[in-house]
Amino acid sequence: MRDPTAPGLSRSARWRAWLWGALAALTCPCHLPIVLLALTDTAAGALVSQYKGIAVVALLTLFALSLTRALRAFRSPR
């Protein structure tokens, strides 16, 4: 894996890679209970609690997408 501070990556490519990585970390399946607890007593929490299955599938899909995009961004500069 390439070093994100290597001269081959531009500044915007590094930010893009780190943002995709942060999104992957937030939507990671091991963090889903924490995210669901953080959304308690909010409108988003009410929506998620009503449609848990759809929310879990959507977050897992977002996790897979953001993880692949982060890995691709760290490996090859644009």
Task: Describe, in plain words, how this protein is organized in 3D.
By secondary structure, the protein is mainly α. It has a domain at 28-75. It is built from 4 helices and no strands. The protein has helices at residues 11-26, 32-38, 43-50, 52-75. The longest helix has 24 residues, at 52-75.
Give the gist of this structure:
The protein is mainly alpha-helical.
Number of strands: 0
Helix/strand/pairing category: mainly alpha
H and E order: HHHH
* Poorly predicted tracts of residues: none
Average of per-residue pLDDT values: 83
Question: How far from one another are the termini?
Answer: 15 Å
Radius of gyration: 15 Å
Tally of helical runs: 4
Main pleated sheet: none
Helix content: over 70%
Principal-axis shape: elongated
% residues in beta strands: under 5%
Question: What are the SSEs and their pairings?
Answer:
Elements: H1 11-26, H2 32-38, H3 43-50, H4 52-75
Could you name the key traits of this structure?
single chain; 78 residues; mainly alpha; 0% strand; elongated
